[in-house]
## 1
Amino acid sequence: MEPRTPSRRTFLALSMGLPVGAALAACGTSGPGGGAGGGGNAGNATYWFLSAQPAEGVRRSAVDRFNKANPNGQITATTFQNDAYKTKIKTALGAGQAPTLVFGWGGGTLRSYVQAGQVDDLTPWLDQNPAVRARLFDSAFGAGTVNGKVYALPIERVQPIVLYYNKKLFEQIGASPPQSWGDIMDLVPKFNAKGIAPFSLAGQSRWTNMMWLEFLFDRIGGPEVFQAVFDGEKDAWSNPASIDALTKVQDLVKAKGFIKGFSSITADSNADQALLHTGKAAMMLHGSWSYGILATEGGDFVPSGSLGYMSFPPVDGGKGDPSNTVGNPAQYLSIYSQATPAQKDIAKKFLSTGLSTDAEVKDWIATGSVPIVKGTESLLSASKDAEWLSFVYGVASKAKTFGQSWDQALSPTAAEVLLDNISSLFQLSISPKEFVSNMNAVIGK
């Protein structure tokens, strides 16, 4: 699907029935700071990206290959943990000290950058370099487009949100993976009776909790429920499906569906994945990047066939299509508007020759990821992770609707209020009605 041209980008148009992906992004150990657009070596472009293996290794390799091929136009890379990066980049943009290449997830955050004049319009450059656009999934451009113009190039990989489970623990209690929300609630006391947490959750990171609501809103009321919020409709959060979804997630919390102390666990430490592969938790709702983390850090958990995965199950009586999924259609790179002409030239060369190359495609596949590059089916089927990659490709390509993550679709202001209220909801410190009231107050802001 080509990007929409009206002044208001349609949330649902980000991807419908096309092979695009989702990402809340990986997280891990942060690297050194510094490296703003105008700082460091004035002849170098600068690039901040997320840490955590195996994704960090792929990103570093892409930069290293580019630097080796371009000795007179280098890129200086700096890594940050997920949450630290989100704070750092906003501060740096506001202070006029951002990196040349601005990593992000598109949507409402990108729109705020555009409105502040902080990133360049890439449309003329893409028109002059059609091969850059031609090799990427068409529908991945939606979240990088504002008012019909491309301000962020889609990069990296397809990442739907997935329900993972530990097969051995299911065998231990003699149960099957959940095929409905009712099944999920039925499994909770069975696992708790055996001293096993039903679900792992790094609740302190907040966006990890959000994935539950994204699916429940969709499965109960269909994608139209959040679409109304995205469109800025008055009191859109008051939809009965919204109250139902918020109530159901609190029912799960009250039933002790999540690991004890989940609100003090952070995703940046990968502790939530560890709970799954060490057998302390039976299931985990998380991004598809978790497969690579589980394979890297989980010992024989993945090679032994102990890892199971599936799409989020339907809710009885719900309106949402079970093929629908959520997440971000890709990761994105913009060019900082205050970078020097020389830095911008290096950045554009990196976007056209340093990313989505054959070497990078193979690197992403080796981590258990599906790149956003067209024509990779034969490479996917030949991979040691072919079954997993086929699953991910199928989820993304067959989804009737692929909704962008809420905290990226909304403005930074509304997203921060959302994440705070989601945290309070999971901690049972506010009711569903209070959540709705708080969120209705920031619609359109």
## 2
Amino acid sequence: MSDALQDKEKDSKRVLYDEELLIRALQEEELELFRNEFLDLHPYDQARFFSRIDDDLRNKLYNYLSPDEMADLFESLDIDEDDYQNILAKMNPTYAAEMLSEMYTDDAVDVLNELDKEQVVSYLTIMDDESAKEIKELLHYEEYTAGSIMTTEFVAISENQTVRSAMYILKNEAPNAETIYYIYVIDEEKKLVGVISLRDLIISHDDVMISEIMSDRVMSVSVSEDQESVARKMKDYDFLALPVVDFQSHLLGIITVDDIIDVMEEEASDDYSKLAGIADVDSIDRNPFNAAKKRLPWLIALLFLGMFTASLIGRFEETLDKVAILAVFIPLIAGMAGNTGTQALAVAVRGIATGDLEQESKWKLVVREAGTGLITGTTCGIVVTLVVYVWKGEFFLGVLVGFSILVSLFVATLAGTLVPLLMHKLKVDPAVASGPFITTINDIISILIYFGLATLFMNYLI
């Protein structure tokens, strides 16, 4: 080992993560040093290091780590979906298949779902039969359901056995289980009948029957239940894991809290993307063409809506010719309506996403938001009326602008509330009613109101 590397090794004892030392160990093929330093890191830090190095160093890393060790790293990777395909394509196929078989089944399925069908078949063919069978069972479940995120690595015991025999099973199966804090109890037909905590199992007498100490009030989720609904239950009840059952209550797997955290992040990112009118805000595209490709569909759709708004203003050209000062207040009225609609939209979408609206009547929300729109519209309308009167000395013009804002804010608030509720009713993601979309719609509504009133009371303005 070179003196420089020895010095680096000493320095690394004082820091948690020495990237330069690891890179130089790979470059100079110091196998023992690299493994000693790298395997001492948390899998998250290993994954961070892996994400930052180039393909040449990754190829060396594959030679230094076993498929089992690489599996721990791969489970902690936080990369774009397309990157999984690129990384696996540069691995030796046998090495990649062994690594996938060593991962927890649900994590392996998440990776394979990002690959082409031909690649999936190829890896499943190379894998050992037992791992391939477990992965195939999860692959056929529909994406974004409980079945697609559950794991089959859990501990289940029979209700007709003693604590002693249950502990024997637990000790044997715990190394391969994703979590052992909850042990699920099944009957002879493998139906879920109860749950027992690890603590209760440990403190119970060896000869006590499991049926005597288990809790039969066990909450479960259907294998076809939406992952967002599962996440809500985990949050509400503070569970570390939830059992997944079929329509006959057979225990199929469990969903752990770490998977639910990923789901919540994914759902939040998805909703934010739609609210911002972007295809995918979760990934940062360093290529401007890819970023533009994701944003253009929404922008083009909004462009045509904007052209419709412009043509709408053109229809009131005669009104503008007679009272040109009306044009001054177009941005004010349209902007206020757009902002109010977006606020109402955010309240409605959040209520739907968190499930809060299931606990109260949706009409209560509509009435509450309508009242809010009326109060804010009246307040802003009075303020604008006074400002315009002081600024321009035109009282009726101030009344027109103020009343237009009142009506526009009221209607915009209702639109921001009703549109996502209607989409939810039609089984469409309410976040699709994005901020830019609802803002443009409210621009059209507010302009119609403003110029409609101006045309109606033209005699008072001239």
